[in-house]
Description:
By secondary structure, this protein is of the alpha/beta class. The protein has a single domain, classed as Aldolase class I (TIM Barrel, Alpha-Beta Barrel), CATH 3.20.20.70. It contains 12 helices and 8 strands. The protein has helices spanning about 15-30, 50-55, 80-85, 95-100, 105-120, 130-135, 140-150, 155-160, 180-200, 200-205, 220-225, 240-250; strands at about 5-10, 40, 60-65, 90-95, 125-130, 165, 210, 230-235. The protein has an 8-stranded parallel β-barrel with strand order 1-2-3-4-5-6-7-8, surrounded by 5 helices. Strand 1 (about 5-10), helix 1 and strand 2 (about 40) form a beta-alpha-beta unit. Helix 1 (about 15-30) runs parallel beside helix 12 (about 240-250). The chain is globular and about 45 Å long. The two termini are about 20 Å apart. The site of 1,3-dihydroxyacetonephosphate has 14 residues, from strand 8.
Amino acid sequence: MARKKLIAGNWKMNKTAVEAEVLAKELVAAVGKITERDIMIAPTFTSLAAVSAVIKGTSIKLGAQNMSSEDSGAFTGEISADMLIGAGVSHVILGHSERRSIFKEDDTFINKKVKKALAKNLVPVLCVGETLAEREAGKADSIVGDQVVKGYAGIPEADAKRVVVAYEPVWAIGTGKTATPADADAMHKHIRDVLAKTYSSTFAEAAIILYGGSMNDKNADELLNMPNIDGGLIGGAALKAESFARIINYTKK
Ligand code: 13P
């Protein structure tokens, strides 16, 4: 079974609601009717409502960049799954390397969020990836494998099917340095092997695994044509309609 490509934009902490609305309108005009590929954009919390209204009825799906592991209560500054759903969100990025490194989110905490997202019928986009030091020490496979195992911990196969994995080598994020298509594909294959061991080979074959880290309109064709790369999680190049649309319309070889 061929896996459908998912091209996702992580807008990070960029754009006011007004600016986000402009970009969303440009994207609707450029790619809003494409159904051959799944498209998701994740603006900031404060732009969700405005962007949701713009993309309603198009093929573009709405994502959030983070979510609380709790339902409600005394968690100042946090946003719950129900609040995201109320804002029109279907996907949520969890465990991004910036959350892991700057905000000290660990695998147990991220796993709790993945479980919460699944319980609420949101699609969790679980981010994993090694640092440059870990790669240079030959530990990339074990670090990423461990993040995958811990991210899926305690999740039954039927629910785990809805998880999307994003492999984002930390050294490639926002640096202009991209993993070579061969290296990225090898890591995606490794993630698939870990999932096959955790669940089953059928499960691993169907899993959607995105690549993220300086993907742009120039290198997307090569990366997205690799057999184990099922899409992209794009930061910088997702902030301009032209480059993001070009990635969505990558040339299939
Ligand atoms: P860049 O595409 O800017 O490298 O960011 C990648 C990323 O972190 C997406 O989540």
